[in-house]
Amino acid sequence: MKSFPILITLLFLSLSINAQEFKFENETIDYGKVVKASNGERTFHFTNIGLAPLIISRVQSSCGCTIPEKPEAPIMPGEKGEIKVSYDTKRLRQFNKQITIFSNAKQPRKVIKIKGTVTTEISLETEKSMLSEH
Asked: How would you class 62 by CB atoms within 10 Å of its CB: exposed for 0-12, middle for 13-18, buried for 19 or more?
């Protein structure tokens, strides 16, 4: 009879060890066409849909041109969190980069992506806003 509470405790611990899980609104952010040296910051939004606090230990980008920023505090069940990404838009080219998230979630490594094209062309929308300011 003494083993029953131990069994229940072990079962609870095994379920709670991997009870963290996050769901992203979007796993890829498409910058589209961005003008050289424009704002390269974007934000990935997610929710902890698990039953325990989600702890992101680190985030790592596939190159030095992309700088990710992780949340410092644990994300509690049901709460929202965000990962900020800054891409260096001073480089003219098409880009497709990966950001790897290391956490205590069911899937301990999660890959999210950014893509787009840095160009010297000014978009029609940017041109309109520049004209309306004068």
From this structure: middle
Check residue 54 and report its DSSP letter. Answer: B
Q: What is the pTM of this model?
A: 0.77
Query: Residue 2 CB: number of other CB atoms within 10 A?
Result: 5
C-alpha span between 124 and 49 (Å, rounded) = 40
What size, in residues, is the chain? 134
What type of residue sits at position 97? K
Going edge to edge, which strands form the sheet with 93-103? 28-35, 109-119, 93-103, 56-61
Q: Count H helices, E strands: the chain? A: 2, 8
Residues 1 and 97: their CA atoms lie apart, in Å, by: 56
List, for residues 4-14, the tens digit of each pLDDT value.
Answer: 555 444 444 44
Q: Which residues pair with 87 in a beta bridge?
A: 66
